[in-house]
Write a structure and sequence with these properties.
Layout (H helix, E strand, L loop, with lengths): L10 H15 L6 H13 L3 H12 L9 H14 L6 H17 L4 H13 L11 H8 L4 E7 L2 E8 L5 H16 L11 E3 L4 E3 L6 H8 L1
Antiparallel strand pairs: 1-2, 3-4
InterPro entries: Actin_motor_Myosin, MyTH4_dom, MyTH4_dom_sf
GO cellular component, one term: cytoskeleton
Protein name: Pleckstrin homology domain-containing family H member 3
């Protein structure tokens, strides 16, 4: 295989490194940075996405301590993967079978709750420009949503709950309804746009842009 970007070596070598990272993940007291590193490698080297999915299914099948900390770390990374990448169709079928089997064997367990969350995420994931931010990984580990603050001229900021799949168009519509209500603009012909602003630039956000990707760029 040819060398990858960002000083990566061959795909084979990177696959071995990822396998070693997965082994380390089981023992990490703070797994978030390691999870983000694994996700970033998969984003940079897409052929490794199926490999990591297969490894995570293997690690969460017949674990030594079902529901233990190490087992849940694997389920949490699998959750982050499902919100970031879609596997190939054969691996997707294999993964869904694994999720069904887990829910059947361990009903009402944490593993079953992650399996249910992952199945729903796979139905929404379209692919990401950026890997999840550290904040997003933390909320995904708890199967929760993030709170996004949108600053509005002439009005208090709006707090919007978003998931890994929430688009700018969905947030823009929510904020527009809030502003119309707060400022009495029901008869106004004005349109609303969502902007991404940093110290270096300000630019409009495309309707299909995922808000989670913007939050990662801010991070």
């Amino acid at each position: 295989a040819a060398p990858g970007p960002c000083s990566y070596t061959t795909l084979r070598d990177e696959a071995v490194k990822l396998f070693n990272s997965l082994q380390q993940l089981e023992l990490e007291w703070d797994p978030v940075p390691l999870m983000q590193g694994i996700l970033q490698t998969c984003l940079d080297l897409p052929p490794l996405v199926d490999e990591i999915y297969c490894q995570l299914v293997k690690q969460t099948t017949e674990p030594p301590a079902p529901g233990g900390q190490g087992d849940l770390h694997y389920w949490q990374l699998l959750t982050c993967m499902s919100c970031t990448f879609l596997p190939s169709l054969p691996i997707l079928r294999f993964l869904r079978f694994h999720l069904d089997r887990t829910e059947s064997r361990f009903p009402a367990s944490e593993m079953a709750k992650y399996a249910c969350f992952i199945r729903e995420a796979l139905g929404k994931t379209k692919g990401r420009e950026c890997v999840p931010s550290l904040e997003e990984i933390l909320v995904l580990m708890r199967r929760q949503e993030m709170i996004c603050t949108v600053h509005c001229p002439g009005a208090p900021a709006c707090s919007v709950a978003i998931s890994s799949h929430t688009t700018a168009e969905e947030v823009r519509g929510h904020v527009a309804r809030e502003l119309v209500s707060r400022l009495g603009l029901s008869q106004s012909p004005n349109l609303f746009a969502l902007y991404e602003q940093s110290q270096r630039r300000e630019q409009p956000v495309g309707s299909a842009t995922l808000l989670a990707d913007i939050l990662t760029r801010f991070e």
